[in-house]
Each structure stands twice: as structure tokens, then as C-alpha cells.
Amino acid sequence: MSGSNLQIVGKLYIFIYIFIYIYIYIYIYIYIYIYI
Question: Which residues cross the membrane (predicted)?
């Protein structure tokens, strides 16, 4: 039970990290687009 719960939390963290990376990339892309 504890092991499977940890796996779910791990997947959730990976999803959050991917979401943050995409958000940062979009933010930088928009910033460069406006700056240029």
C-alpha cells in the first residue's frame, strides 16, 4: 500500500516538473518574442 502510494506521488511529481518546464519555456518564448 505504501509502495504503490509512493509510486503515485512520484508520477505526480514528474507531471508537475514537466508542467513547470513547459510553463517556463512558454514564458521565455513569449518574453523573447515581445523583446524582439
Answer: 12-34
